[in-house]
Write a structure and sequence with these properties.
The protein is mainly alpha-helical. Helices cover about 75% and strands about 0% of the residues. It has a domain of about 35 residues. Helix 1 runs antiparallel to helix 2 and helix 2 runs antiparallel to helix 3. It is extended and about 55 Å long.
Length: about 160
């Protein structure tokens, strides 16, 4: 309950903060609370990977990009009112869809779930038995993306 409250408050801090660095720091707190939820769901491997990938690598990249940007408020163009209204309407529509989806969702009874669900051994067995072909296809895709990034970034 406390972890969920901290996650919601820090997520609101991301959206409502005027300072981009404060927003990024609130997002890091949100990522850590989500990792805490993964630990509570007995998915320790997912929690560790979530912290390493999101709170580590991606947030460092966000901070690096923000340091390279010129964030002067005077140079920023003013948003038109219709864009603000469109954003509010689309956010409200998303809220309606989420409430409708969660209304039909069902929660399993407490104490009936297996304690072996989120462990790395079970994930590895499932990944390398049932999903071995998609796993290998995705690794080839990542390899080709890395080669493409090297080719694009290479100086002539």
């Amino acid at each position: 309950m406390v972890l969920s409250f901290v996650a919601l408050v820090s997520a609101l801090g991301v959206v409502l903060s005027k300072n981009p660095v404060t927003s990024v720091l609130c997002l890091i707190v949100t990522f850590f609370t989500i990792a805490g939820h993964y630990v509570m769901l007995n998915a320790q491997f997912l929690a560790v990977v979530h912290i390493i990938v999101y709170a580590g690598a991606i947030m460092v990249l966000f901070l690096y990009v923000m340091m390279l940007m010129n964030l002067n408020a005077e140079l920023e163009p003013q948003k038109r009112n219709w864009l603000k209204y469109a954003g509010a309407i689309s956010g409200g529509a998303l809220l309606v869809v989420l409430v409708a989806a969660l209304r039909d969702a069902s929660m399993p009874a407490l104490g009936t779930e297996s304690t072996e669900i989120g462990l790395i051994g079970n994930l590895g067995k499932l990944l390398f038995k049932q999903y071995v072909v998609p796993f290998e296809v995705s690794s080839i895709l990542f390899l080709s993306a890395m080669v493409g990034a090297v080719v694009i970034g290479k100086k002539d």
